[in-house]
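Quick sanity check, site-specific DNA-methyltransferase (adenine-specific):
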Amino acid sequence: MKSLLEQLPSIVAEGKKEAERVIERAESSYRLGLQTRELVIPSKDSNWQDLFRKTAQSNKSTPAENYNALIYGDNLLAMAALLAGDQHRQSLRSSIQTIYLDPPFDSKADYRTKIQLKSGDIEQRPTVIEQAAYSDTWKAGTASYLSMIVPRILIMRELLKDDGSIFVQLDWHVNHYVKIVLDEIFGKENFVNEIVWRRKGGSALGVMGRLSAATDNILWYGKTLDYKFKPVFQDADPEYIEQQFRYKDLDNRRYMITVMRSPSPRPNLMYDYKGYKTPPNGWAIPRTTMERLDAEGRLHFPDSKEKQIYKKIYLDEYPGQMINNLWSDISTLKGSNREILNYDTQKPEALLSRIMELSSEKGDTVADFFVGSGTTAAVAERLGRRWIVSDLGKPACMITRKRLIDQNAKPFLYQHIGDYQVEQMRSTMGAKFRIGDLAEIILGLFGALPLPMEENPNKNMGRLQGSKTLVLADSPNKMTGLATLRRAIEIRDNLMGGWDKVVILGWNFSPTIGHDIEALGQGDRLEVLVIPPDLLDRLKKKGHKLKADEVRFSSLQYLKLGEVSRKQDGEWESLSVAIANYVLLSPEALNLDEINREKLQKIINSDPLALIEYWGVDPDYDGEVFRSVWQDYRGNTDNDSDPYRVTRIARLAGLPKKSGPRRVCVRVVDVFGFEAEATIEVA
């Protein structure tokens, strides 16, 4: 078997081919896009009413480039979409100033999510999408990890500005191999520093047979030699101050001295000054600068003319010591630190602050494509940087969104990767993939036999054997909504002499799907089920070996609203919206063990609203972009003193007055990341 060093050339070569395919697609007519799920307007922002009024005046989609973005999904696909651009956002090629990369690098990491509920914690194992990503990353150890990281770093280089930088944080597992990869992609000449972060406050206990690891390595590369560099200073040690600033002016102003010798001779630096001989290679500054510093009293003249002139550095102007590549002053998060979000790989804000201060300025764009707990976005927001972040894990995206709302961030977009299922299926079944092929596979996994081709040219209809039940598999690149329901009912009643029942299997659903089903009044003659969102990843992993009894099609989660009232007062309006009930997606669809599934079922039976993690209200929904101007979430005690629950009633004041009905949309996200919406017109 080849060693890892022997495999590296082919790993890099394959990664380059994959990146080239992504770049070619970005420049072609078939481009991967981003779908905006929510424009989050933090309700703590006192200016949200103005922003809401401006966005409500236009029926056009929100221009994405005006907002920061949190993207859910595979970061390779997210970066491909950013590289491609679309009608709402220009391509971000050569647009990002700083990229911070903290990819998971421990194959034994526990990626379970602990969901804290008042009635007891539930541990959710990763979704199959996440499991597949993690297991693919480590199926052949470090070689698989490098195969994952190479194309992603290549795409990141395309996104960086010419004076941009990338910082890759790693530990001892893969640091040395990734350094070789970065040398190949960015060029050894563009390596800036290897920063060693000594995790202050870490464990002092060793492990059997070796010393404990107390450091991480951060590899800093510029895209070019013209990378942006902004010196960062820290307070000098008192002993250093005492030793170095030992001189005083006549006015008792303390200073230290620094030499002014040139490292190499140049004609304009070779001159005598006030009887002091020029150094062997000349002075560090030309005569005009020397004269200016002399006039300002900033030169130190030794008593002996045989010595050299020094420059004064005054203590009251001293910015501190410029940091070096050993960062030992930044602590890990521990104890009662206010930053702690109980996210295993969370990094301290001070670490990200320093990285951004070194390599970017206010208004620059920073990115993090393994955002985790959202530290990069939170720090960028605080430092006045633009930001784009993404993560494959829904818990990470949920934590990040809540963190930014808590921070009273400027409005930002929460986006998904468009046509994600189609994109995944193309990578599973190849370029010849057709939507009908996918529908045929889904019908088979549901246990339905396909209808004859003459009745079923799109291969998307089947029947359950031994019954008069018709099954229709909807397309993954469309929303299952009222039009689909009506068409399914028509087919049920007329195709092949009619059927007793029709079952619709859907991927994506319109916000009003639950109410539409209820309004149609079909009873048990119409059923809508959810195709597992991770099905395509499972097909990619297991292919034809995936069996029907391994796939569970779940009922829709459903949100029911309570009382909704609207009052007008002069030029303004107030709105009160209550949520009455929330029905969770079937527990069978969740990746839980039997004990946690039983815990969940008890909560569903006794208090289903306790499972709501987050909800928001758009008081003027345009049917395209959900603009949440009011939010509540577990842990927010401003609206409700209970950290384990959300409030049941949203109260919005200061809305601009509107004649005619308001179309109010409510979106709920449960603790597992599933979403449900309800829309109502309020007179």
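Posting the structure with no commentary besides this: The mean pLDDT is 85.
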